Amino acid sequence: MEEEKTERKDIIIVAYEMKYHAAFKAINEEWISTHFQMEQEDYNSLENPQEFILNRGGKILVALLNNKPVGVCALIKMKDSEYDFEMAKMAVSPEARGKKIGWLLGIKIIETAKAIGAKTLYLESNTILKPAISLYYKLGFEKIVEQHTAYKRCNIQMKLELNNLK
User: Fold this and answer.
1) What is the C-alpha separation between 51 and 152, in angstroms, rounded?
2) 11-164: CATH topology
3) 135-165 per-position pLDDT tens digit
4) 58 CB-contact burial (10 Å; exposed 0-12 / middle 13-18 / buried 19+)
5) Secondary structure of 55-101 in the HEC alphabet?
6) Neighbours of 60 (CB within 10 A)
7) Cα-Cα-Cα-Cα dihedral of 25, 28, 32, 38, to 10°?
8) Cα dist. 21→4, 33, 35, 121 in Å?
9) What is the pLDDT of residues 50-76, one digit of tens each?
10) Are 10 and 66 in contact (CB under 8 A)?
11) Mean pLDDT of the chain
12) Helices 101-115, 130-139: inter-axial angle, 10-degree rounding
């Protein structure tokens, strides 16, 4: 991972609470609908993150800019022998982009994964999302091939070996 500032006074990363549900849903729906179509898996996790993410051993983090939710990221527990968690539903609202919020969320979600014993993170994306793909590489993710995906929009899959990080 490249060294980069991992905190700012006006941005804090907090654990998801129900009061952030509308923001979690809206921030994700915005980017998905801008570039793709919402899919059933999106509706499941965005409509009911408690059932589809948290109750299954996952985590959700929320980035607050001056106490307003502007970014989100989830760790979804996987039923896979190779990958412990999927880093998913990472999004930053348009008005907050360019402020390193994605970087801060990525660092914090990786720290969270390590703290709960994860060894390997997985993610799915699409190469038209160039800033996101660049961020994932900066965080240390590597491209992998031939994993099953539930998303039509997915054309790149990546993994991060947490044991290799400092």
Assistant:
1) 23
2) Aminopeptidase (3.40.630)
3) 999 999 999 986 676 667 788 999 999 986 6
4) buried
5) HHCCEEEEEEECCEEEEEEEEEECCCCCCCEEEEEEEECHHHCCCCH
6) 25
7) -30
8) 29, 18, 22, 24
9) 999 999 999 999 999 999 999 999 999
10) yes
11) 90
12) 40
Q: Are 65 and 10 in contact (CB under 8 A)?
A: yes
Per domain, the residue ranges of the chain are 11-164
**Angle at CA of residue 74, ends 78 and 79, nearest 5°:** 5
Nearest to 71 by CA among 58, 90, 55, 95: 90
Per-residue model confidence (pLDDT) at position 75: 97
End-to-end Cα, the chain, rounded Å: 9
Crossing angle between the packed helical segments 40-47 and 21-35, to the nearest 10 degrees = 160
Contacts with 75 (C-beta within 8 Å, 6 or more apart), sequence order: 53, 58, 59, 60, 85, 86, 87, 88, 109, 112, 113, 116, 118, 121
The residue with tokens 């790149």 is 156
Q: Which residue has the tokens 């348009």?
A: 94
